[in-house]
Specification:
2 domains, Arc Repressor Mutant, subunit A, mainly alpha, DNA-binding, homodimer
Chain lengths: ~220, ~220
DNA sequence: TGTAAAACAGACCGGTTGTCCTGTTTTGTC
DNA sequence: GACAAAACAGGACAACCGGTCTGTTTTACA
């Protein structure tokens, strides 16, 4: 009994950008919740209320749609959730901690864990197709590089001298990815806090007591 | 032109255990290489050279087959590759390091990365079905607990006093899982060594120079 | 206003999927 | 050897998949 959009027979408004966005929204959500193979384009058409012709006009194949989701949505999610907050933080370790805590808080408030969109798709599609793999690997690489760059910036400011940028970045991304994997499987975000605690104990964080308060830098974490 | 098994018309040997094992072998491999949804039972029948009736007799549904793979194969792989070597090592950190190095070496020699079977299936199936999720969560739990137990055992022997068992276990499993995820996506096992290095820098490893030589404790790493 | 391209609708199709079903052969047991 | 149960063979099937196709409507532009 919801309000129908009144499909007047003789009226139609072409909205290619809106249509494309609607499809990407639905596909992003479906790939995240059910995965690529488990999401049929029929499901997507129904969920987006879009005809087959329209969908095919914007995305000729399912692969093209997934590639668009990866390039435009998954990359943006990593940028929003991780890269921007870390770069904006007072230090890498501050930034990493705030992201872990923000995501954990978001998940706990939400009550369920759907996992990291990048890792979800990476596991399912990396071996399925080289194009998928390259696109996903690029996002991983950008994620790691942003953290490593931040470490180097910190070091030029005299902080965190003893930390290897590449290794710290790799460990951080790996710890987060793996923690999200466990959180999704256990449906419990607590492991994120365990991993963060283990991570913070790491390396020459000279001054384990400073900055005890939590700061809220990031916009709504899109990784849910 | 391979040697045919000579399917004599009037001869057949019932070998239920062998048949079951053959199917599980093929399914384990296919799920690892292509994933659950991308592996049709038709593919499995062909690869295992097994009739539909035979397969259905041992595994009534595809889900039952996957559950058997998880319970009997994935769990065993984690046990073989991780739990047993770590428990047998001189210390947790020794064990963790040897597993990381052994897996990295195996992957580099092999030339390609198919990822961690547990994480592969966990990402694809955790949200698809509660039975899948519980089975996979149990394996993650056992993995973490084994490492935490080893930390406690070390501590009772006077070693590694400052390490929190649960947090160290969570971070170790997460770092490995995430590193394998990146290694699979980048098709490069180098990130495993980066993560290990970051991990070893962590915590009060009193004596960063001891035990520089690598030791070979583990049997052939089944996680490929 | 005329017109061609873009945007969209919806039916259609060949191939695949997982499962079921009927029937045959083997095997353990008395 | 009789016989029931287990083990296996293989065809059948309905549902579904992704993609294509034809046709209609809207829109940009001259």
């Amino acid at each position: 009994m919801t309000v129908q959009p009144k499909p007047r027979p003789g009226k139609r408004i072409n909205d290619p950008e809106g249509m494309r966005k609607k499809v990407l929204d639905v596909a992003e959500d479906a790939f995240q919740a059910r995965g690529y193979h488990a999401s049929s384009i029929g499901d997507l058409m129904a969920a987006a209320d879009v005809s087959g012709g329209a969908l095919h006009h914007h995305f000729p194949t399912k692969k093209a749609l997934a590639l668009a989701v990866i390039d435009e949505r998954v990359a943006a999610a990593v940028e929003e959730t991780w890269i921007a907050p870390v770069l904006a933080a007072a230090s890498v370790r501050e930034g990493v901690r705030s992201v872990f805590e923000a995501v954990a808080a978001e998940l706990e408030q939400q009550g369920f864990v759907r996992g990291c969109p990048l890792n979800n798709l990476a596991h399912e599609l990396s071996l399925a197709d080289p194009d998928f793999r390259l696109a996903l690997a690029g996002i991983f690489g950008g994620w790691r590089q942003a953290i490593a760059d931040k470490v180097r910036a910190d070091q030029q400011a005299g902080k965190d001298e003893g930390t290897d940028p590449e290794r710290f970045a790799a460990l951080t991304v790996a710890a987060y990815s793996g923690a999200m994997s466990m959180a999704k499987t256990a449906q419990d975000a607590g492991v994120l806090r365990d991993c963060l605690a283990g991570l913070e104990r790491s390396a020459p964080s000279q001054g384990g007591l400073v900055a005890r308060r939590r700061n809220r830098i990031l916009p709504r974490p899109r990784i849910i």
